[in-house]
Each structure stands twice: as structure tokens, then as C-alpha cells.
């Protein structure tokens, strides 16, 4: 059949809400009428060699439905929201040209926001400025850098933790390059060249009505990751010798806590507690992002028939009929 009149469907939700299983169920339900290809919307799944701690789909799951934007970067490399918009926009066009439905799946809300709303027209990275900021941080520490940010950009400083070195550095970099605070760029959205962001009305989300349900899922999954060899995975990454704790890849939730424990900064016995707490904070931020997207169609992920509900409403949206 011809491609769906819907350019793409997006499935979001906090970590551990069941997005992967739900996406595969949607693909299976649509398969008799319309093939589906999945585009990952996850800033951690882009990295090769980071499988257990990212809850990357299994080889069987990856084989069941074509997947994109997984294992496309070495952990030494960065991957920006602008690169995601460029890649996802091209993939949406390519998948539709093949007569299939693009299904975007993941929890990196910044990527969704960039795709739906366009990109902030802010300065590109400046290696010279970053180098100077890193030298300054080595002298006064990131808490001192946070205080400096509070002086020049109090709005950004108020929303960043004093230890969030990556984002503090970026906010200071923007200020030094442009003379403007980071927030001032949020009102001047532009689309990437050739980008045609899909509408947020095509966004479905899995959200818990009971946070305790999600917290229990997060705890179970983190313990399962440890049992599956997560620490060995991080040990292999450390053994490369070219990775460090401030890289975006190593700042991913779980990896950062494991790296710190292996470096002796925290007792190894505290890793489960710290990893679970960090993942719960991530989920809280993801839910906050989602609640700022009123066009979304939310499904209670803790409902017994959550997957069936989601499949039904997505199929109705895509095919224009009930299922």
C-alpha cells in the first residue's frame, strides 16, 4: 500500500516505561498493512560498545524490525541535537520513499523538541573557548565555574547543578562567544536546512499514573543490568585509555555512576543506590518535558493493557480506522 498520510509517529516516555516492547508491538500490528522502520530517539543508543547500561534492544529485537541511529558513534565522539534532526529528517524521507512508516522511539526529549520546534540558532562549538574554560575549571573547580555562570547568566545557572560540568561549560561558551545568555537563544528558533519537523500531534507517550510503579521498574532494571555484566562493560570502556568521565557518552546515567565507583570516588557498594537514584531523576525530567507537550496522546504505562491501548490508538491514527 502507499505510505501512510501521517509523516511519522513518535513514541516517547520515561526510561523503563516499556517503549521498546510497545514499539515492536506497534510494528507487528501494522505489518500486514504497512511496514514500519524504527528511528531511535536516544542519545545513549548512538554509542557502540554501550549495550547493557543503555538497555539497547537485543539482537533479536533489532532483527525483527529495521532500526536506525543505533551504534552510529564511537563513545569518544559527540552527537548533537542538530545532527539528530538532520539524520532523522533524512531517514523519515527515505523510509517513506520505501513505502514504510517511520516510528520514532526513545526518551531523549531534547531531540524531540528540536524535531518538533526547530533548533536554537546559537553559536557553534568553539574549541579555543572550550579549552580556556577547561583550564579555568582546573583552577577553580566546576562549582567555581557555576558561580561564574550565575554572574553572567543567572537563568541558566539556576537550572543547572554545580556539578553539571558539560552544560555549565556550554552555557559559558555561548556567553563568551556571543555576549548573550543561553536562554536568549530559545526565542529565536530556526529549522535545520531542509528539515521538516513532524508535528507534536503525532506524539504518543507512555507515562505512569503511579510513580512507585516506575521506580520499581527502574530498580529492577538496574539490578538486572548489573547481573548481566554492566560493570564489565564499563571496565572495557575504561581499559581503552582514551575515554574520560566528562565525555557525553560517559555522562550517560548509570555509566557516570559506574565510572566514579571504579575510579574509587564512591564505594562500589553504593553503586546500585546511586545508579537507581540518578535514573529516577532522569525519569522525572523526562516526564516534566512530556507534560510541556500538550498535544501528546498519553497512555498509562502502568495499566495492565497499556500496550494494547497504545497499539489500538496508533493504528487508528495511522490507518484512519479502529483495529
Q: Unreliable segments (pLDDT under 50, ≥5 consecutive)?
A: 190-196
Q: Reading side by side through the largest sheet, how are the strands ordered?
A: 3-2-4-1-7-8
Q: What is the quaternary state of this protein?
A: single chain
Beta-strand percent range: 5-15%
Given the structure, what is the number of helices?
12
The residue-averaged pLDDT reads: 90
Q: Biggest β-sheet, characterized?
A: 6 strands, parallel
Output the radius of gyration: 20 Å
The separation of the N and C termini measures: 17 Å
Q: Can you count the beta strands?
A: 8
Order of helices and strands: EHEHEHEHEHHHEEHHHHEH
Q: Name the helicity range.
A: 40-55%
Shape: globular
Instruction: Please identify the structural class as seen in this structure.
Output: alpha/beta
